[in-house]
C-alpha cells in the first residue's frame, strides 16, 4: 500500500488583466472547487523594448520591474476574485519573464488542465481566439479550456 498522499489536481490559468483572463481565472477556481484541485495563476511578462523610439527605456532595475509585474498579477487576481485571503481553493501565483505562450506551456507540464481567456491584451481585439490561446490549444501537454469573456466580468 502506498502511504504517499496524491497531490490535488492542478489547474493552470493564464491571467494578463484582461476581462477574458479574469473570467478564465474565475472558471478555473470553480472547477478546482468541483474536483478538489488547486490553481496556478500564471502571468507572463517581458521588459519593455523600444520600437523606433516610441517606448521610453525603463529606469527601473530588473528586480524592481519583476516586483511591479507581481503587483500587476496580484491586482488582476483581486479584481477577478475579490481580495484574499479566504479563497475557496489553494491558489499559487506565478509571475514569469517570457513569451506568454511559452510560459503557459511550461507551467502546464504535469497539470490536469490549462485554462485561458479567448483573447488577451493583444492588438487584435476582434479575433475570436488570440495568438497565445491558439498556440496553447495546439501545443499544450494537457487539455485546454478557452473561456470567452464578455467584457462584463463574466
Automatic annotation (TrEMBL):
<dbReference type="Pfam" id="PF00582">
    <property type="entry name" value="Usp"/>
</dbReference>
<dbReference type="InterPro" id="IPR006015">
    <property type="entry name" value="Universal_stress_UspA"/>
</dbReference>
<feature type="domain" description="UspA">
    <location>
        <begin position="10"/>
        <end position="148"/>
    </location>
</feature>
<comment type="similarity">
    <text>Belongs to the universal stress protein A family.</text>
</comment>
<protein>
    <submittedName>
        <fullName>Universal stress protein</fullName>
    </submittedName>
</protein>
<dbReference type="InterPro" id="IPR014729">
    <property type="entry name" value="Rossmann-like_a/b/a_fold"/>
</dbReference>
<dbReference type="InterPro" id="IPR006016">
    <property type="entry name" value="UspA"/>
</dbReference>
Amino acid at each position: 500500500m502506498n502511504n504517499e498522499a496524491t497531490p490535488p489536481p492542478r489547474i493552470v490559468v493564464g491571467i494578463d488583466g484582461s476581462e477574458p483572463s479574469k473570467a478564465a481565472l474565475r472558471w478555473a477556481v470553480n472547477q478546482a472547487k468541483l474536483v478538489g484541485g488547486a490553481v496556478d495563476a500564471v502571468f507572463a511578462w517581458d521588459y519593455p523594448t523600444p520600437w523606433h523610439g516610441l517606448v521610453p527605456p525603463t529606469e527601473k532595475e530588473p528586480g524592481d520591474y519583476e516586483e511591479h509585474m507581481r503587483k500587476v498579477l496580484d491586482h488582476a487576481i483581486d479584481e477577478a476574485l475579490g481580495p484574499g485571503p479566504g479563497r475557496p481553493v489553494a491558489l499559487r501565483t506565478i509571475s514569469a519573464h517570457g513569451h506568454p505562450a511559452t510560459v503557459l506551456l511550461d507551467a502546464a507540464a504535469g497539470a490536469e488542465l490549462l485554462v485561458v481567456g479567448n483573447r488577451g491584451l493583444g492588438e487584435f481585439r476582434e479575433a475570436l481566439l488570440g495568438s497565445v490561446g491558439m498556440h496553447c490549444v495546439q501545443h499544450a501537454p494537457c487539455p485546454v479550456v478557452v473561456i470567452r469573456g464578455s467584457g462584463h466580468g463574466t
